[in-house]
Design brief:
Layout lengths: L1 H14 L7 E8 L14 E8 L6 E9 L2 H5 L6 E2 L3 E2 L6 E2 L10 E10 L11 E4 L4 H4 L4 E2 L3 H4 L5 H4 L5 H4 L14 E9 L3 E11 L1 E6 L2 E2 L15 E9 L7 E10 L21 E10 L4 E5 L5 E4 L2 E5 L3 E5 L18 E2 L1 E2 L6 E4 L5 E8 L2 E6 L2 E19 L5 E7 L1 E2 L5 E2 L8 E5 L6 E3 L6 E9 L2 E2 L9 E12 L5 E5 L2 H16 L18 H5 L1 H7 L6 H11 L24 H4 L1 H13 L3 H20 L28 H22 L3 H22 E2 L4 E2 L4 H9 L5 H17 L10 H10 L4 H8 L7 H6 L26 H8 L2 E3 L8 E4 L9 E8 L2 E10 L2 E8 L4 E5 L8 E3 L2 E2 L3 E3 L4 E6 L2 E8 L1
Parallel strand pairs: 14-23, 20-30, 33-34, 39-43
Antiparallel strand pairs: 1-2, 2-6, 3-4, 3-5, 3-7, 7-8, 9-22, 10-15, 10-18, 11-14, 11-16, 12-13, 12-15, 16-17, 18-21, 19-20, 24-34, 25-26, 26-31, 26-32, 26-34, 27-30, 27-32, 28-29, 35-40, 36-37, 38-39, 40-41, 41-42, 42-48, 43-47, 44-45, 44-48, 46-47
Helix pairs in contact: 9-21, 10-12, 12-13, 13-14, 14-15, 16-17, 16-18
């Protein structure tokens, strides 16, 4: 109840500032982001949400002003764009159509609207956007400690697209002390003699960087810039700096560089070897002074570098730090850098320099030690209480030159020591003390998935052994993307609540530069997880600016023949089905559609239509009579067999169904985009694939598909491949198999979503409830009983490798759409109109969820109490909802305390209410 009350209180606080009958635009965004610093589009899309005291409120018109300065905007002078009154209810994705926008320029805008009664609002608060720099304007010079030619790093893509090769390992220059591998510090002094108005920084430090101005870190990112295929795209970051960041006279720019995915190391654990070149920096800062003049400071030969105290850093192997190599105040004025060396100008990365528009990865939470065990004298294992992606922070004291090695892992061996065997070993952090009181250290360029920390040869808290260093404090830092959370869910069933927590802890752990499979042994962007968990991801997180970057990565990775590989960015080629599996590659077709459905924005469909089309065409080249037979199939399907390739269901059935689904969505996109010829082609193709699929896999006598497995029967129902006259029979066969298996699933990574949603969308939510309301394997409850805090790779954690995968998390879609009942309308994308149609199943007594849609907060809270069904809903301004009540036709219905005559949906056999915006409480007799 507390969360829902907070929702209502928050809304009440906002609307207290609105006069009766008024409406107010809030939460202004440009290209789906608040006050973005690098808008690429020449005609960016402007959006806003609306709030009102009144129910059933909507917009009938708007006026937008865009100005070149805040002063002009405050004087209502839209010198860049004044739309005048535009009569429309549209408040999302308004395409800018004013004067041509200049690069590297900041603009200011505001909006006011008219409500359904013709009353005009106050002006919104001022929003801003800054246009990105053209690459020609950036004119980047890349600098570092060593050129690529002198680094002796392997040339060409064969290096980083080769699988692990032990023989090659020893032929590479891998010494961490090598300038080709070593973390370096770069510095540039500069003078400021006039009053600064503002400054803008454009920076890309590869693999990752930390930027400081006068010793103060700029931004809060932990791994900037985000990962890409650096041969195709190189991200740069943009920062706005205020006058207070500078001091009159001497100032210093400091940059620390690490390897990241740009330049992996061969020592310790690594999943693969990849190098695009030695660590490198591009930097540009434009300073604007109050007198109107400008100054530009860029990366060039005048910068100097020195080796940093980080003596080893690998995204896969860990990080080492020698505090005795610190150079105090190296990034501040007054430091003597006479022993530093001049940088060299390096070969530029091959990729196109693009602004990073996706949110950064940051430290989100910190955990204290939960329990500690001393396995033997001075040998400690710490349980941090949460499996997560991140790194520790240690506070230590001891003698100069003493060192502490910090091991981390997801699990423990029988004797209680940490176990890295399943997750990639050896991985550790080494810290060498300088012997100066209590020292604190946090790694910067490496992370791992772990819950347990093991440290040997130390004192803990107390200085018992004077010959050993003392660990004063230990914390665990949870890092994940800062996109922000969009929703919440809770209900009366504790298994479901804990399942929601398990899944979301795993999503967060893998919500990095890309959605990874696991945060330890691979850290790779396996694509199927995004589309199969897509609705759950979008209900829980704000992906408006993250998914466009994902599609850019997919586009970059697409081969000339149209193949979209299973992992993106494709740092390593595994070959065969592990590179080419339709269930993975079709993400490039499905994701733009999901984006349109949830955010009402067709831009990804427009931009990446060629990617979608080319992938379907590629599958066509692999088909025989429209049947595609390669791939991984229903990966990790459940049974007595070892997990891996699909065993319960035909791989060809899985591959061909996704070929059909891709063709169907390309036809749908063609129609939306007005591409008539493409629509006719792909609509016909989809029809032909459907016919071939049914001919190949459907048995008219048994009314079953493939091997009669749950996946075999669920996927054609979900994708509407099964002919209507056979649908009910196939559905009954599916239900019979579930019952025969004791209400347990046999699907895998791919099939779970199709099984879950086939049941949910065909009135079988009680079956879903039985399938998941238990503590056995396969099931989420078994993992809860096992005491885990994240979702694992297999239903039985003892059989799998990673204990931090979200690939089995497809039940999130059911929590939001079925239990809470928040369902989008496929005809009104972006939740312009939606359904609230909760399912009351099993012995559940309440469920509640909220979702921050692009129009505003949607909330649904139902409970069974004293023989009544009570539903409270929140509907954003400028939207409408159809509420379908899970009660009998003759139930007495009251809304906000007054009797209400509802309509009735004959197909659903439920009373129906059509509602505009507002908060409503509906009470029904059961």
């Amino acid at each position: 109840m507390k969360n829902f009350k907070n929702i209502l209180l928050g809304l009440s606080f906002l609307i207290t500032f609105i006069s009766n009958g008024q409406i107010l635009p809030v939460h202004l965004t440009t290209e789906m982001a608040e006050n973005p610093l690098a808008v690429v589009e020449n005609q960016p899309k402007l959006s806003w949400q609306l709030i009102s005291k009144e129910s059933d409120a909507s917009q009938i018109a708007y006026i937008i002003l865009v100005a070149s300065s805040e002063e002009k905007l405050n004087n209502d002078d839209g010198d860049i764009w004044n739309t005048g009154r535009v009569n429309t209810d549209k408040n999302l994705h308004i395409v800018y159509n004013g004067k041509p926008l200049k690069s590297e320029t900041k603009y200011f805008w505001k909006v006011k609207v008219w409500n359904q009664e013709g009353k005009i609002s106050k002006w919104s608060k001022t929003a801003t956007f800054r246009t990105a720099s053209l690459e020609s304007d950036l004119n980047p010079t890349w600098i570092g400690a060593i050129t690529k030619a002198d680094s002796h790093l392997p040339e060409g893509r064969n290096y980083h697209t080769a699988t692990f090769n032990r023989e090659k390992k020893n032929s590479f220059i891998n010494a961490s002390d090598s300038l080709a591998r070593r973390s370096i510090m770069l510095r540039k002094p500069f003078e400021v003699e006039k009053a600064v108005k503002e400054a803008v920084v454009y920076i890309s430090g590869l693999g990752h960087y930390e930027l400081t101005i006068n010793g103060k870190k700029v931004g809060n990112s932990q791994f900037a810039p985000l990962w890409t295929d650096y041969d195709k795209t190189v991200n740069y970051n943009v920062y706005e700096l205020s006058a207070k960041e500078f001091q009159k006279g001497d100032n210093v720019i400091g940059v620390l560089l690490g390897n990241g995915m740009y330049n992996t190391l061969a020592e310790r654990y690594t999943k693969f070897f990849v190098s695009f070149g030695p660590p490198t920096l591009f930097f540009k800062m434009k300073i604007k002074y109050n007198d109107g003049s400008e100054e530009i400071i860029k990366s060039d030969r005048t910068w100097k570098y020195s080796k940093s105290p980080i003596t080893y850093n690998s995204i896969f192997g860990g990080e080492d730090y020698n505090a005795n190599l610190e150079q105090k105040d190296w990034n501040r004025k007054g430091f003597k850098d006479r022993d530093w060396k001049k940088v060299v100008v390096q070969e530029a990365p091959k990729g196109v320099l693009r602004p990073q528009t996706a949110p950064p990865v940051i430290i989100q939470k910190q955990y204290e030690v939960k329990t500690v065990k001393e396995l033997k004298p001075n040998f400690y294992v710490f349980d941090m209480g949460q499996n997560l992606s991140g790194f520790p922070t240690i506070k230590v004291k001891g003698k100069k030159g003493q060192s502490i090695r910090v091991w981390v892992a997801e699990g423990l061996n029988e004797e209680g020591t940490i176990a890295q065997g399943r997750s990639g070993k050896p991985y550790y952090y080494d810290y060498t003390l300088k012997g100066d009181g209590t020292e604190e250290w946090t790694p910067k360029f490496s992370f791992y998935g772990y819950q347990y920390v093991q440290i040997e040869n130390i004192n803990y808290k107390e200085d018992k052994n004077k010959d050993l260093p003392t660990l004063v404090d230990l914390k665990s830092n949870f890092i994940y993307n800062s996109a922000g959370e969009a929703g919440s869910f809770v209900c009366s069933n504790e298994i479901f609540n804990k399942t929601h927590e398990l899944i979301n802890n795993s999503i967060k752990s893998n919500f990095q530069s890309v959605f990874t499979d696991c945060p330890q042994r691979e850290k790779l962007g396996w694509l199927e997880e995004i589309q199969l968990n897509g609705p759950g991801l979008m209900f829980n997180y704000n992906l408006q600016t993250f998914l466009p970057a994902t599609m850019q990565n997919i586009s970059d990775s697409q081969r000339e023949n149209g193949l979209i590989p299973t992992i993106v960015p494709e740092y390593v080629i595994f070959g065969g089905d592990f590179t080419d599996s339709p269930e993975w590659g079709v993400t490039g077709v499905i994701l733009p559609w999901m984006y349109y459905e949830y955010y009402g924005d067709a831009s990804l469909l427009e931009k990446y239509f060629p990617v979608m089309k080319n992938y379907v065409d590629y599958l066509g080249t692999k088909a025989t009579n429209h049947i595609v037979s390669h791939g991984l199939g229903d990966w990790y399907d459940y049974g007595t067999h070892p997990a891996g390739y699909s065993k319960n269901s035909p791989i060809a059935l899985s591959a061909t169904s996704h070929y059909y689904y891709g063709a169907y969505l390309v036809a749908k996109a063609s129609k939306l985009l007005g591409k008539t010829e493409d629509f006719e082609k792909y609509n016909m193709l989809a029809s032909e694939i459907k016919t071939a699929f049914n001919k190949e896999f459907f048995n008219e006598e048994t009314k079953q598909y493939g091997t009669n497995s749950q996946f075999s029967n669920a996927v054609p129902i979900f994708m509407d491949i099964v002919e209507p006259q056979y649908k009910e029979a196939v559905m009954q066969n599916l239900l019979a198999d579930i019952k025969e298996k004791g209400d347990r699933l046999t699907t895998g990574d791919v099939g779970n979503r199709y099984l879950f949603q086939t049941l949910a969308r065909n009135g079988e939510n009680e079956t879903m409830y039985k399938m998941h309301n238990h503590y056995d394997a396969p099931g989420y409850g078994f993992q809860i009983k096992f005491g885990l805090t994240t979702l694992t790779e297999q239903w039985d954690p003892r059989k799998g490798n990673s204990w931090n995968h979200f690939m089995l998390g497809q039940i999130e879609e059911w929590f939001y759409q079925s239990l809470a009942g928040i369902m989008s309308d496929p005809e009104k994308h972006g939740f312009k109109h939606f359904f609230i149609q909760p399912e009351v199943v099993g012995d559940m007594t309440f469920a509640k969820a909220d979702y921050q849609s692009v129009y505003g907060k949607i909330a649904s809270f139902w409970e069974k109490k004293d023989g009544k069904f009570i539903l409270t809903v929140q509907i954003p301004v400028n939207t409408t909802a159809t509420v379908k009540l899970p009660v009998a036709k003759n139930s007495e219905i009251k809304m906000d305390g007054k009797r209400f005559r509802a309509g009735f949906d004959e197909k659903a056999q439920k009373p129906v209410l059509e509602l505009g915006s507002g908060i409503y409480t509906i009470e029904c007799t059961i």
